[in-house]
Input
Amino acid sequence: MSLKSCLITGTLALIAGCLAGYWLCHLQWEASESQMNESQARQETERLEKAMEENRNLHQTVSQMQIQAKKENDDAKQKYDDLLARINRGTVRVSVPARSCSDVSEAGHSGTDDRETRAELDPATAESILAVGRDGDEAIRELNMCIDQYNAVKSSIAAFDKPKN
Output
């Protein structure tokens, strides 16, 4: 064989070897890349499934809180309506303390401070006064429910974001 044909054959063998090496390297890289992508996809799927489960649990917890709050509000409304009905029927009387003015001294003050009389309120006035307490109680129940929901969401997020050991 001549030197020229040996050089050509050697060069072709070198090129073929380089191409084969590149091709094998590329196949190994693709396999490892594919394996890494599959692993990441599995991890992401597991994380997503866990997040969806946490979301379902949180939704159920908040729904139960709302059901409980509605029940408490309905019970409070029923008690309030019953009290108003008893006041309007006259079976319950609402009164406030008042000072007696029957013994007025020369200075215009009550002669004795230990006397106490009571002034009965009409049902409309009693209802107006009781409405303030009812509205305050309702606002407190709503605020407590809001705080409970916030704490539930906060603990759910904290549990979800907890790093794995």
